[in-house]
Specification:
Rossmann fold, 6-stranded mixed sheet, 6 strands, 42% helix
Length: 161
C-alpha cells in the first residue's frame, strides 16, 4: 500500500514563510514511517515547511498537497499534529477532500485531546488515539486487505454514517 504522510506547516496562519529547524521536526512522523516501511508499505512524505515562493501559506499547501497526491497516487493519507496545527489540518483536510476521495487518517495531540470534536468537525475517514506506530500499520493492513476495523484498538472510524 502507498501511504502519504503530510507534516503540518509551522506557524501556518501566523507567518509565511515560516521556517522549521531540523531539530523541531515532529519525530512521530518518522516513527510511523519507519513502522509502515518495516511492514512492507511504501511511504511518501510531504514536509510543507521552509517552502517559499507563494503569496500565502494556503496557496502553497493547496498546490503542494495536490501535486504530491497526483505524483505519488497514495492509497491512504496520514496527517496529525497538535492543537496549534488546527488551522493547517482543517485547510489541508478541505483541500484533500476537494481534490480526491483517498481515505485520510488523523492522529497526534489534536486527536488525543478532543477526538470526538475534531473527528466530527474535520470528518477524516479514521483517527488514531495514542501512539500511532502499531495502529497505523494495522489500519493500513486492514484497508489493504479489505478487513474489518473493529478489531483494531485505538482507532475511530465512521460506521453507517
Amino acid at each position: 500500500m502507498k501511504i502519504l504522510l503530510i507534516v503540518p506547516t509551522h506557524n501556518y496562519k501566523l507567518i509565511y514563510p515560516s521556517f522549521l529547524s531540523v531539530s523541531d521536526f515532529p519525530a512521530g512522523y518518522a516513527y510511523i514511517a519507519s513502522s509502515l516501511k518495516e511492514a512492507g508499505h511504501e511511504v511518501f512524505g510531504l514536509n510543507l515547511n521552509n517552502i517559499t515562493g507563494y503569496m500565502m501559506a494556503s496557496s502553497m499547501i493547496f498546490d503542494r498537497i495536490t501535486k504530491k497526491i497526483d505524483e505519488a497516487k497514495p492509497d491512504l493519507i496520514g496527517m496529525g499534529g497538535l492543537c496549534i496545527d488546527y488551522a493547517f489540518l482543517k485547510d489541508a483536510m478541505g483541500f484533500i477532500r476537494k481534490h480526491c476521495t483517498i481515505p485520510v487518517v488523523l492522529g497526534g495531540g489534536i486527536i488525543n485531546n478532543d477526538a470526538e470534536f475534531i473527528f466530527n468537525l474535520f470528518k477524516p475517514d479514521f483517527c488514531i488515539l495514542g501512539d500511532g506506530e502499531e495502529t497505523m500499520v494495522k489500519l493500513a493492513n486492514a484497508i489493504e486487505g479489505d478487513e474489518d476495523y473493529a478489531s483494531i484498538d485505538n482507532i475511530g472510524y465512521w460506521e453507517e454514517g
